[in-house]
Write a structure and sequence with these properties.
Structural class: alpha/beta
Number of domains: 2
Order of helices and strands: EHEHEHEHEHEEEEHEHHEE
Radius of gyration: 18 Å
Strand order of the largest sheet: 2-1-3-4-5
Shape: globular
Helix content: 40-55%
């Protein structure tokens, strides 16, 4: 039975989430501040974290940053308040897997939790290593290097690249990418432009000529295709 850690300082939200997750069949750990949440995340066996950004003692983004230094693959959902657009972007750059904006629907959150677990169990993302243009990717540790020197990629960039490689020579749509990497349905996503921006970033990092890519190709009106 998966264990979910909730890090939230608002008692009503914390208790509501705990009740809903227990009822859904999950084991639950709770923490009311960032320091305690970080301690549980690093010392206890946790399968997923629901992490508020605004926390006492240690804010959620710092908790996320320190967790990602130790564990690149632990699923993490951020809880954000309206108007925290910069925090959402920062959270994704630090390696968050998803976010939910307060006030939120418990049903929606449970669906996102389920989607993250499903993605971890049933995906082509089992690829552990790959090399492109002298860049060696360690997808298990979520890091990359060229001739022994680290090359900076965000966790989201690495997840997207691994997903594309997993479907090498096949066209994958933006809807598939949103569902598998961002865990969104195409109807509920505000825009697919986010994916296009990530593709541009990846091309600039792995392609010899980003303007004429050889590996990550655009298929007009359909999506993208990775060619080894």
């Amino acid at each position: 039975m998966p264990t979910i850690l909730i890090v939230e300082d608002e008692s009503s939200i914390l208790l509501g989430l705990e009740d809903a997750l227990v009822y859904a069949g999950y084991e639950v750990l709770t923490a009311r501040n960032g320091e305690q949440g970080l301690k549980f995340a690093l010392q206890e066996k946790v399968d997923l974290i629901i992490l508020d950004i605004m926390l006492p003692r240690l804010n959620g983004l710092e908790v996320l940053r320190q967790i990602r230094q130790k564990d690149k693959s632990l699923p993490i959902i951020l809880l954000t308040a309206k108007g925290q657009e910069k925090d959402k972007v920062a959270g994704f750059n630090l390696g968050a897997d998803d976010y939910v904006t307060k006030p939120f629907s418990i049903k929606e959150l449970l669906a996102r939790v389920k989607a993250l677990f499903k993605r971890a169990q049933h995906s082509p993302l089992g690829l552990e290593s790959y090399t492109i243009n002298n860049i060696s990717f360690d997808f298990k540790a979520m890091k990359a290097s060229r001739h022994g020197k680290a090359v900076v990629f965000s966790v989201r960039e690495l997840e997207l690249l691994r997903f594309l490689i997993g479907y090498a020579n096949e066209v994958v749509s933006r809807a598939q990418i949103l569902e598998k990497i961002w865990c969104y349905d195409i109807e509920s996503s505000p825009t697919t432009r986010t994916i296009d921006n990530y593709i541009v970033k990846l091309r600039h990092k792995i392609e010899a000529n980003p303007e004429k890519p050889r590996h990550i190709l655009t298929v007009h009106r359909k999506g993208y295709r990775f060619e080894p």
